Protein backbone atom coordinates (compact mmCIF):
# COMPACT_ATOMS: atom_id res chain seq x y z
CA UNK A 1 0.00 0.00 0.00
CA UNK A 2 1.10 3.49 -0.71
CA UNK A 3 -0.21 6.57 1.10
CA UNK A 4 -0.48 9.83 -0.80
CA UNK A 5 -2.18 12.98 0.41
CA UNK A 6 -4.26 11.07 2.96
CA UNK A 7 -5.51 8.66 0.26
CA UNK A 8 -4.62 5.01 0.51
CA UNK A 9 -3.86 3.38 -2.82
CA UNK A 10 -3.59 -0.37 -3.26
CA UNK A 11 -1.68 -1.80 -6.18
CA UNK A 12 -2.93 -5.18 -7.32
CA UNK A 13 -1.03 -7.34 -9.75
CA UNK A 14 -2.88 -10.27 -11.26
CA UNK A 15 -0.92 -13.08 -12.81
CA UNK A 16 -2.64 -15.41 -15.26
CA UNK A 17 -1.43 -18.89 -14.57
CA UNK A 18 -2.70 -22.28 -15.48
CA UNK A 19 -3.53 -24.75 -12.73
CA UNK A 20 -2.18 -27.33 -15.17
CA UNK A 21 0.00 -27.03 -18.24
CA UNK A 22 -1.42 -27.76 -21.67
CA UNK A 23 0.58 -30.99 -21.65
CA UNK A 24 -1.01 -32.01 -18.32
CA UNK A 25 -4.49 -31.16 -19.63
CA UNK A 26 -4.18 -33.26 -22.80
CA UNK A 27 -4.63 -36.69 -21.14
CA UNK A 28 -7.52 -35.32 -19.08
CA UNK A 29 -9.25 -34.25 -22.32
CA UNK A 30 -8.73 -37.74 -23.76
CA UNK A 31 -10.01 -39.38 -20.55
CA UNK A 32 -13.23 -37.35 -20.66
CA UNK A 33 -13.82 -38.14 -24.32
CA UNK A 34 -13.30 -41.88 -23.83
CA UNK A 35 -15.87 -42.20 -21.06
CA UNK A 36 -18.68 -44.47 -22.17
CA UNK A 37 -21.08 -43.64 -19.35
CA UNK A 38 -21.92 -40.09 -20.49
CA UNK A 39 -23.41 -38.60 -23.65
CA UNK A 40 -21.47 -36.47 -26.14
CA UNK A 41 -22.85 -33.10 -24.96
CA UNK A 42 -21.95 -33.93 -21.35
CA UNK A 43 -18.42 -34.79 -22.49
CA UNK A 44 -18.18 -31.44 -24.28
CA UNK A 45 -19.47 -29.62 -21.21
CA UNK A 46 -16.87 -31.38 -19.07
CA UNK A 47 -14.16 -30.28 -21.53
CA UNK A 48 -15.42 -26.68 -21.21
CA UNK A 49 -15.24 -26.93 -17.41
CA UNK A 50 -11.80 -28.53 -17.52
CA UNK A 51 -10.41 -25.68 -19.61
CA UNK A 52 -12.21 -22.89 -17.77
CA UNK A 53 -11.27 -24.26 -14.35
CA UNK A 54 -7.59 -24.80 -15.16
CA UNK A 55 -6.65 -21.88 -17.39
CA UNK A 56 -7.25 -18.61 -15.56
CA UNK A 57 -7.59 -16.46 -18.66
CA UNK A 58 -10.20 -18.74 -20.30
CA UNK A 59 -13.28 -16.87 -19.08
CA UNK A 60 -15.87 -18.24 -21.53
CA UNK A 61 -15.36 -21.61 -23.23
CA UNK A 62 -17.85 -23.09 -25.67
CA UNK A 63 -18.49 -25.05 -28.80
CA UNK A 64 -20.44 -23.96 -31.86
CA UNK A 65 -21.50 -26.44 -34.53
CA UNK A 66 -22.73 -26.15 -38.10
CA UNK A 67 -26.51 -26.43 -38.25
CA UNK A 68 -26.90 -29.24 -40.80
CA UNK A 69 -26.71 -27.83 -44.33
CA UNK A 70 -27.57 -24.31 -43.21
CA UNK A 71 -24.85 -21.69 -43.28
CA UNK A 72 -25.12 -20.97 -39.59
CA UNK A 73 -23.61 -22.10 -36.33
CA UNK A 74 -25.58 -23.17 -33.27
CA UNK A 75 -24.29 -22.92 -29.76
CA UNK A 76 -23.43 -26.19 -28.11
CA UNK A 77 -22.18 -26.83 -24.57
CA UNK A 78 -20.38 -23.90 -22.94
CA UNK A 79 -19.20 -22.53 -19.61
CA UNK A 80 -19.33 -18.85 -18.74
CA UNK A 81 -21.76 -15.99 -18.78
CA UNK A 82 -24.99 -16.66 -20.70
CA UNK A 83 -24.98 -15.43 -24.29
CA UNK A 84 -27.70 -14.28 -26.66
CA UNK A 85 -25.57 -15.54 -29.57
CA UNK A 86 -27.05 -19.01 -29.87
CA UNK A 87 -27.22 -18.91 -33.68
CA UNK A 88 -24.49 -17.19 -35.71
CA UNK A 89 -24.70 -16.81 -39.50
CA UNK A 90 -21.58 -17.72 -41.47
CA UNK A 91 -19.45 -14.62 -41.96
CA UNK A 92 -20.81 -12.75 -38.93
CA UNK A 93 -18.52 -12.18 -35.97
CA UNK A 94 -15.31 -14.07 -35.29
CA UNK A 95 -17.06 -17.46 -35.16
CA UNK A 96 -18.90 -16.80 -38.41
CA UNK A 97 -15.67 -15.76 -40.11
CA UNK A 98 -13.93 -18.97 -38.99
CA UNK A 99 -16.83 -20.99 -40.40
CA UNK A 100 -16.03 -19.45 -43.80
CA UNK A 101 -12.23 -19.26 -43.66
CA UNK A 102 -11.57 -22.65 -41.97
CA UNK A 103 -8.63 -20.95 -40.24
CA UNK A 104 -7.83 -20.22 -36.60
CA UNK A 105 -8.65 -16.66 -35.62
CA UNK A 106 -6.88 -15.00 -32.69
CA UNK A 107 -8.14 -11.55 -31.73
CA UNK A 108 -5.72 -9.79 -29.36
CA UNK A 109 -8.10 -6.84 -28.83
CA UNK A 110 -11.79 -7.30 -29.67
CA UNK A 111 -12.31 -3.52 -29.57
CA UNK A 112 -10.12 -3.21 -32.66
CA UNK A 113 -12.04 -5.86 -34.63
CA UNK A 114 -14.65 -4.56 -37.10
CA UNK A 115 -16.77 -7.71 -37.32
CA UNK A 116 -16.79 -8.57 -33.61
CA UNK A 117 -20.08 -9.56 -31.94
CA UNK A 118 -19.90 -8.35 -28.34
CA UNK A 119 -21.01 -10.99 -25.86
CA UNK A 120 -19.87 -9.08 -22.79
CA UNK A 121 -18.27 -5.72 -22.14
CA UNK A 122 -15.58 -7.48 -20.08
CA UNK A 123 -14.24 -9.55 -23.00
CA UNK A 124 -10.90 -8.21 -24.24
CA UNK A 125 -9.59 -11.00 -26.51
CA UNK A 126 -10.89 -14.11 -28.27
CA UNK A 127 -9.65 -17.24 -29.98
CA UNK A 128 -11.67 -19.46 -32.29
CA UNK A 129 -10.30 -22.73 -33.67
CA UNK A 130 -12.25 -24.75 -36.28
CA UNK A 131 -12.99 -28.46 -35.93
CA UNK A 132 -12.86 -30.85 -38.89
CA UNK A 133 -14.27 -34.29 -39.63
CA UNK A 134 -13.03 -35.85 -42.87
CA UNK A 135 -11.79 -32.43 -44.00
CA UNK A 136 -15.14 -30.72 -43.43
CA UNK A 137 -15.52 -27.89 -40.91
CA UNK A 138 -18.25 -29.09 -38.52
CA UNK A 139 -17.79 -26.52 -35.78
CA UNK A 140 -15.35 -24.75 -33.54
CA UNK A 141 -14.20 -24.05 -30.05
CA UNK A 142 -14.59 -20.42 -29.00
CA UNK A 143 -12.82 -18.91 -26.00
CA UNK A 144 -13.16 -15.40 -24.64
CA UNK A 145 -10.76 -13.78 -22.22
CA UNK A 146 -11.05 -10.74 -20.03
CA UNK A 147 -7.31 -10.26 -20.59
CA UNK A 148 -6.02 -8.20 -23.49
CA UNK A 149 -3.84 -10.22 -25.92
CA UNK A 150 -4.27 -13.38 -23.83
CA UNK A 151 -3.72 -16.08 -26.44
CA UNK A 152 -0.46 -17.44 -27.82
CA UNK A 153 0.55 -19.99 -30.41
CA UNK A 154 0.63 -22.53 -27.55
CA UNK A 155 -3.11 -21.93 -27.00
CA UNK A 156 -3.73 -22.49 -30.72
CA UNK A 157 -1.81 -25.79 -30.77
CA UNK A 158 -3.54 -27.00 -27.59
CA UNK A 159 -7.02 -26.11 -28.90
CA UNK A 160 -6.23 -27.81 -32.21
CA UNK A 161 -5.43 -30.93 -30.17
CA UNK A 162 -8.71 -30.59 -28.24
CA UNK A 163 -10.70 -30.24 -31.47
CA UNK A 164 -8.95 -33.18 -33.12
CA UNK A 165 -9.89 -35.36 -30.13
CA UNK A 166 -13.46 -34.00 -29.94
CA UNK A 167 -13.93 -34.61 -33.69
CA UNK A 168 -13.57 -38.35 -33.02
CA UNK A 169 -17.02 -38.21 -31.38
CA UNK A 170 -18.67 -37.30 -34.69
Write the layout of secondary structure elements.
Elements: E1 2-4, E2 7-9, H1 22-33, H2 40-54, E3 60-66, E4 72-79, E5 87-89, H3 93-101, E6 105-107, E7 125-133, E8 136-145, H4 153-167
Antiparallel strand pairs: 1-2, 3-4, 3-8, 4-5, 6-7, 7-8
Helix pairs in contact: 1-2, 1-4
Key features?
170 residues, alpha+beta, Beta-Lactamase, six-stranded antiparallel sheet, two-stranded antiparallel sheet, 4 helices, 8 strands, globular
CATH architecture: 2-Layer Sandwich
| Number of distinct helices | 4
Could you give the count of β-strands?
A: 8
The end-to-end span amounts to: 54 Å
Poorly predicted regions: 1-16
Whole-number mean pLDDT: 89
Give the ordered list of helices and strands.
EEHHEEEHEEEH
> What's the overall geometry?
globular
Strand arrangement within the widest β-sheet reads 5-4-3-8-7-6
Largest sheet: 6 strands, antiparallel
Structural class: alpha+beta
Question: Can you tell me the number of structural domains?
Answer: 1
What percentage of amino acids are in beta strands? Answer: 25-35%
**Helical residues, percent:** 25-40%
Radius of gyration: 17 Å
User: CATH superfamily, called what?
Assistant: GAF domain
The first-level CATH class is given as Alpha Beta
CATH topological fold name: Beta-Lactamase
If you had to describe this structure to a student in words, what would you say it looks like?
The chain starts with a strand and ends with a helix. 29% of the residues are buried. The longest helix is centred in the first third of the chain and has 15 residues. Strand 1 and strand 2 form a beta hairpin. The strands form 2 sheets. A 6-stranded antiparallel β-sheet has the order 5-4-3-8-7-6, with helices on both faces. It contains 4 helices and 8 strands. The chain has 170 residues and is of the alpha+beta class. It has one domain: GAF domain (Beta-Lactamase). Helix 1 runs antiparallel to helix 2 and helix 1 runs parallel beside helix 4.
Amino acid sequence: MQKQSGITTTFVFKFYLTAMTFEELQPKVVDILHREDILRDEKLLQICHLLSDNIDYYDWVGFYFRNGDKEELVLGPYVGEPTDHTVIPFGKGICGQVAVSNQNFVVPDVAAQDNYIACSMTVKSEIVVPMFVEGKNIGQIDIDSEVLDAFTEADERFLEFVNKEVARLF
